[in-house]
Amino acid sequence: APALVLVATPIGNLGDLSPRALAALRDADSILCEDTRVTGPMLARQGITTPLVPLHDHNEAGMAPRLVERMQGGTRFALVSDAGTPLMSDPGFRLARAAIEAGVAVSAVPGPNAAVMALTLSGLPPHPFLFGGFLPPKPAARTAELGRLVAAERAGLRATLIFYEAPHRLAEALAALRDGLGAARPAAVARELTKRFEEVRRGTLDALAAHYAAHAPRGEIVVVVGPPAEEEAPAADALDAALRRALAGG
Ligand code: SAM
């Protein structure tokens, strides 16, 4: 069995906890989790008594070497975050990298991920996509980040963009996206995925920014932004003309 298993857990609907996830959590010697107050009750409901060890952004780097040593000594760990797929805007990357670099066997139990679910429901091209995690909350840093994306698009990047966002910042984030990427850019806001009030609202960045400025949203939110429109293809006309000239023996 792998010494480290990255286990995805639900993003709101407990029915999404898979049989393989349950087995991995039951079989591990210890479960590394972000917050024992979140993971503890979830395991208790399933009758799983595997001991929990907190692993979060503040202790992960410090704990990783010791945890990898224990893996090398035969201890089998499962890693979960509070919700969804660990490492994805959640702790676990430093530990996974340390284990991989040490040659420890690492596996994963795939499952819920808000970014991918929002992408598939957005009606926007699924690939290529760029997962941006959370945009910086401070306006100056956010503008700088969007500036880097705009520069990448000018250089030819044609990707659907995915961001996590807090509800109280959604309207200003959409306004910043509209100002940076263009008012007419198609987008989608996915809210409360897999939960009772799941909702996906699709429209231009302009329309979505206006809607959420007027209706403060609640709950958990993913923003998906479509790629820039294909540039008009003057090349086709030019090619036609060149072909006609060539056929005419010009
Ligand atoms: N690891 C998680 C995953 O795989 O999706 C994401 C963790 S990140 C700390 C939490 C953010 O993910 C939320 O602020 C929200 O942007 C997004 N999110 C998580 N669950 C969601 C849901 N049910 N509906 C919409 N967005 C969600």
TrEMBL record:
One of its GO terms (molecular function) is methyltransferase activity. InterPro entries: 4pyrrol_Mease (IPR000878), 4pyrrol_Methylase_sf (IPR035996), 4pyrrole_Mease_sub1 (IPR014777), 4pyrrole_Mease_sub2 (IPR014776), rRNA_ssu_MeTfrase_I (IPR008189), RsmI_HTH (IPR053910). It is found in: Cytoplasm. Keywords: Cytoplasm, Methyltransferase, rRNA processing, S-adenosyl-L-methionine, Transferase. It comes from the Bacteria. It catalyses: cytidine(1402) in 16S rRNA + S-adenosyl-L-methionine = 2'-O-methylcytidine(1402) in 16S rRNA + S-adenosyl-L-homocysteine + H(+). Transmembrane segments: none annotated. Its EC number is 2.1.1.198. Pfam families: RsmI_C (PF23016), TP_methylase (PF00590). Residues 4-208 form the Tetrapyrrole methylase domain. It is an enzyme of class 2 (transferase). SUPFAM superfamilies: Tetrapyrrole methylase. GO terms for biological process: methylation. Belongs to the methyltransferase superfamily. RsmI family. Catalyzes the 2'-O-methylation of the ribose of cytidine 1402 (C1402) in 16S rRNA. This is Ribosomal RNA small subunit methyltransferase I.
